[in-house]
Write a structure and sequence with these properties.
Layout (H helix, E strand, L loop, with lengths): L11 E4 L4 E3 L7 E6 L6 H12 L1 H6 L2 E7 L3 H11 L4 E4 L4 H5 L3 E6 L2 E6 L2 E5 L5 E5 L7 H8 L2
Parallel strand pairs: 3-4, 4-5
Antiparallel strand pairs: 1-2, 1-5, 3-8, 6-7, 8-9
Length: 151
């Protein structure tokens, strides 16, 4: 499991426009990397819109927001357009990055076990080290808490 102070695992994934994005592309900035279960579902939509609504405040703190799930590029493109999201969504359909960050986990609902993304947010500092980890995120009030943690 990753811990505060660890170097954030680098990755190369396609964004919602099909362009390859690497974590290294954002060195020198704070990166808010949030992992969410599924595009266009109630909790994920609220979280994305909360990040959208605070975008200017994150920019003032030299921070970029990146969302990531196991959804496909096409799904991300529709989701981003539908809600006017001003940040990139990264597609990890092979779940390799989700596994590297420890957020691809066994979950259970109504007694049924399945694999899925545990809603988690990391703040990565300008040098690429993990500054903060928010596991098992509860959406309400989360974005304000993340914003408050960035220096």
């Amino acid at each position: 499991m990753l811990a505060v102070g660890d170097k954030a695992p680098d990755f190369k994934l396609k964004n919602d426009e099909g362009k390859e994005i690497s974590l290294k592309d954002f060195r020198g900035k704070n990166v808010v990397l949030y992992f969410y279960p599924k595009d266009d579902t109630p909790g994920c939509t609220k979280e994305a819109c909360d990040f959208r609504d605070q975008q200017k405040d994150f920019s003032k703190k030299n921070a970029v927001v990146l969302g990531m799930s196991g959804d496909a590029v096409e799904s991300h493109a529709k989701f981003r357009k539908k809600y006017g999201l001003p940040f990139q969504l990264l597609a990890d359909p092979e779940k390799k990055v989700l596994e590297a960050y420890g957020v691809w986990k066994e979950k259970s609902m109504y007694g049924r076990k399945y694999m899925g993304v545990e809603r988690t947010t990391l703040v990565i500092d300008p040098q690429g080290k993990i500054a903060k980890i928010y596991p098992k995120v509860s959406v309400t009030g989360h974005v304000d808490e993340v914003l408050g943690s960035i220096q």
